[in-house]
Amino acid sequence: MKNFKIIKEKVFFFLTAVLLITYKLFWGAIAASWREDEATVIWIADNITALNTHVGLISSVGLPNPNLLILFSKIFTIFDSLVFVSIFIAFLNIFLIYFALINKENDYKNILLFLLIGFSTYVSQHTIEPWGQSVLITINALFLYFLFRFAIYKQFYLFPLFPVIAMAPSGIYLAGLTNSVVYVIFFTIFTLLNIKNIKSFFTNKYINFISITSLFLIIRFTWIPFFNKVSLNEISKVGNSSYDILLIFIERYKNTVRSLFGFWVDERSYYFPTMNVNIISDSTNDIYQLFLKFHWFLQRYALINILLIFFLLIFFQKMLDMNYIKKVFILIFYLFLFTSISPAIGGREFLKYQRMDNYIETYFIYLYIWFFLGYCYKNFKLSKLLHFINSFVIIVFVMFNVYFSYNILFDNYQNKSTVLSESDVPMLYKQQITEYIADDWSKTGDSNKIPIFYDLGGGIYDWVNEFGTKYSPYYPSNPYTIGRGFDYILKKKYNLSNSQEGKQFRNIEKSKYIISYIFSPENTGIYSEYENLYFGKLRLTINNNFDLNN
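The structure corresponding to this sequence follows.
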């Protein structure tokens, strides 16, 4: 009987994994756009050695980020399909998030957590591309994984890994300094609380070796190259003084406590590129409004659970699972610190809904809290009922997210409006058009240098090439240019290099192929004879009279 139960659980988990793979495949093919930021990351990772990768992407204020995201993205260059890269990134995020807080004693709860994280619409939206803000979701999950094992399960030998984890967020993205500060605060608190066990901190020689090696590599390949190019003074201009940090933190913390459970109940909380009003249908927008109302319910449901738990903590502590209680407390404290510290050190005012794309990384923590609060009870008659209610709420929420995702993806896939959104064009169309170009070029050209131009400003991305000049001091090869995602696929999969590679501003007249949007003016004045093919919102213009010797 026991063996049958194990087999049943494994079969169910396998079927769930298959469904999840299919789910992520659609997100990667339709929702992933691989515009210049993400495409440049993987382009540099694939084409420039680690020793020559001095900085990462340049922020909107013109300040370079460290290169750790690019170095990490070298893993993804094993794929010649950006859809496969998206799926790989999605699963890497999901499994790290899932294993961070898994409870090994409760199999069905593990499955529910797996479903909640894996099928979350908002998590799926932001875990399909190598983007600094969303990669911090993974780093946070890794941090929580080690923190809980150190603080709750007393695995003190993990201590040497804390400095490595603390350095990672700011190495990925300078705004990740907020994360690093929060990590250090947690590490300090729990180190002091367990100071009597300090002899156990360094007992595992393998962990010690991994920690020392990782610290050396990060310092050698990330921070030394970075500070060889960027002065500390440039960075300090962005932040506040120590005195201002303290004053701002004191001023904000009261508002943070009051507003912490006010997020995710209205549209201001979200950064949802695929939810452009000109692309989604009225029915999908109606579902979105229900999505927001569901979060309103979850927040109130969480507050009710918190009040009940406080009551039981005072009078009937034995009725509570203290491991779950500790996890919930740590998660809430993390949200409090992150939200309060960010404006204090020069970051975003999340309480005023500034740049909520930087708050994406906290969403899965809210999911954790909602999930765990319903399972904090034990040893009393109503606990089974409360567990059932929580499981029911989670399952309904998961099913709703799947339905919501289907509608979002369908609208983005079939949309051919004259409006370009930040979600750009589904990656599926980009791969189709690149495949066609490669096949056509194999019939006419005998060189691996392909004359292609990207007219893909679309009114939203017209700034890209000019902004790309900011990379010149660090990368003379001009990696940040419009159409970099197409360049990557052509080179990686078909061994075709753009004939104008290395030029920041490319010449449309020196191109046999032009990729543009269907709503862009056709370049009828450039060629006497041309052919137009259409792939979703993309148009491929082919100059059949192009002089290959040009």
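DSSP finds 19 helices and six strands in the chain.
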